[in-house]
Known about the structure:
Blueprint: E1 3-5, E2 8-11, E3 17-18, E4 23-27, H1 34-42, E5 53-54, E6 58-61, H2 75-81, H3 94-106, H4 122-134, E7 140-144, H5 152-167, E8 171-175, H6 179-184, E9 187-192, E10 195-198, E11 215-216
Parallel strand pairs: 4-8, 4-9, 6-7, 7-8
Antiparallel strand pairs: 1-2, 3-11, 5-11, 9-10
Helix pairs in contact: 2-4, 3-4
Pfam families: ABC_tran
Keywords: ATP-binding, Nucleotide-binding, Transport
GO molecular function: ATP binding; ATP hydrolysis activity
Amino acid sequence: MSYAYSTTDALCDVSLSVGPGELLVVAGPNGSGKSTLIEVLAGVRRPRTGRVVRRGDVALVVQRPDVSPMLPVTVRDVVTMGMWRGRFAGRTTRADRVGVTEALERVGIRRLAERPLATLSGGQRQRAFLAQGLVRRPDVLLLDEPTAGIDESGVLGVHELLREETRRGAAVVCISHDPHAVAGAHRVLRLHEGRVAHRPVRESQPRSTPSSSAIGS
């Protein structure tokens, strides 16, 4: 698939597939097309050529800008929004509320559940949006630098969460420069100027075939 901003090519003939239980890390320098790739895979942007095939529920976790102090939402509200895909906003069940609490617990911010989102540090906000992506237990989890702003000890915890997601069968695609993420990946796709520069395959790659891919292009 390919994608362009006006006349500027952002992705050129990129092809990939990720199967259930697999963690693919996307690496590369700034401006190489990583964030654009994640947005195209998520359906936020439509490819200029080619197509994206998604199987199952897809959740996207992006790097978040500063949050306006005027935004009247709590951390719990933000995570609850992750439950609303395909449903009327605002309607939650008891199971939803239990799931939100579990997601907050998993990312280590349950104690902050009732705090206004705008009062959190950058790392805490990132954890909140990570919990939002995890709360539905999606089949495909797409993440753009999920550890941005999180301290070193917390970074290791995030990587363990991603491994937990693959163990339950999710396909995970993660943009990261962190060496721990790269070391723990089943495969690493490196981009340079919108093209696949290097795609090594580790021996620990789960057995999968193109027909079993959860997401691919």
